[in-house]
């Protein structure tokens, strides 16, 4: 299939983005107030003044030579492993929402139980193929032990590739220790990739926080993929011009990429972007804006066409707080720009409402349907000789019908059909006031998945070892 | 047009570069410095704050007005009686531990200063104990504000408020919280006195809280 791609840039535009990024990296530098990171840059002869790191074109080029164009993220069920950048498309789950919303209970603060339910719902999905420990924040678990509890929860309930939220340096290492227990092999340089962070975001403009930098170091030291990210807000943490934000975001990505290659040359990196225009009524990140489509497509072109790197964007987002028309419109648009951008995977945010703050169980199901529509479109038009159907058209002739043609009988089930939205509704059976019809179908679906989910997907002996690790490291 | 009216209009329109000269001209005319502050600048910022709340202007337009006022206050300060510039009271403000985001906090500070507060800015990544220490060094503080942008630093916000709630001086202060993931429900849950969703509302609510304290 053709893998249809939307485009914003010419080759010359992309060269200008690259050149401008290099200028920023050398003339402005990037600020990373993290002693561990500053030592790495100093050791490799980079110009460092205080916590400002200056990077030359040669140093960027060297890093780009070692970073791979694709990586395999492994799953406990090997059939579910994904080659990102190598042709597979990763449909991922959220990182960061703090509330849940359901038709039954409305909006509620996230809990470990809710995070577990979401992980089970994602596991049972035939669209979502990367699972997470952070479908919603487990607000009820003490912070000092949260990383242990959410990792145990994820490992118990999925055999798909795994996404994690960020922790601190030691906590991320403990998270990777727990993965080792379950997958039965070391997470180390040169080994397999089992874990990806949803995002290691820059702190725009032109900086990385100490915490994020610690995560980059921890992951690269053990050979795990580092998905970079920029959540720049135009006019607030980035220039008001979309082109300028693409430039700055690209410079930040390159700085993070260089760091990974200093720690572990050849370490897999995902070029991750999530910039959005601001809603200047509150100077807030606005993930319902159509401007994000341009930002994300342009940035992904830099990743894929210019650098040939695995890349991810951030679909499904909406500013709406409810599963209403606005949510559907904004979610479809954002997901379209991701899936048709040429990106290889997502910082999922599947099912999210309210500018990433809330995960809706019902929207999760309906966003899966948006995804399947777009993956169908992404495959493009079949243009082989038979598909031109000239002989069939001649056979039917002028004024005939194709209903009973052999091609029609053979191929009609290959077309896309909805699972939850409805093309065959009886208008008399549903009143104008009923706007929850599709949501109720989604509601029934997530409940079915939870009812059918096993208590644990782990072997009891492995689970025992995992529990012992958690007990030993709990504070 | 009177000198005070000129100052009022320049602040409202955010003409930051012209306000200082207009304030000086008003002083030269013999206008009362306190009247220039209250009627020329604070009243103008009230209008700006209301326009922002009503969705008539964007954040940068509000900020540039606040900056204009700040420029004017610099000229006015030597002429004001001690304490007049920060008459609404002292306000300690910081982004909580682990959180490096300061754009929202700085925006709130500008609006608070425009509303007549003297703000002690603790910056970002502020340990919870620092809020307490700063109060003890400034016992005339009326309000302490804690900000968090990240969902992952909401617990640090909670810890900061919980620590403040245990202090003997708790009844003498009000605690305000804010930031993108914060909600009224969360503020109630952790025992803060007030949450507002934007900088203009924060300044207005802070004035009410300050008045309650007397």
Strand order of the largest sheet of chain A: 11-13-15-18-19
Q: State the CATH architecture of the domain at 65-378 in chain A.
A: Alpha-Beta Barrel
Provide the low-confidence segments of chain B as ranges: none
What percentage of residues of chain A falls in helices of 4 or more residues?
40-55%
N-to-C span of chain B: 36 Å
Would you give the CATH topology of the domain at 65-378 in chain A?
A: TIM Barrel
CATH fold assignment of the largest domain in chain B: Rossmann fold
Number of helices of chain A: 15
What is the CATH superfamily classification of the domain at 65-378 in chain A? Trimethylamine methyltransferase-like
Instruction: Tell me the structural class of chain B.
Output: alpha/beta
Query: What is the CATH superfamily classification of the largest domain in chain B?
Result: Cobalamin-binding domain
Low-confidence stretches of chain A: none
Biggest sheet, spatial arrangement of strands of chain B = 2-1-3-4-5
Q: How large is the share of residues in beta strands of chain A? A: 5-15%
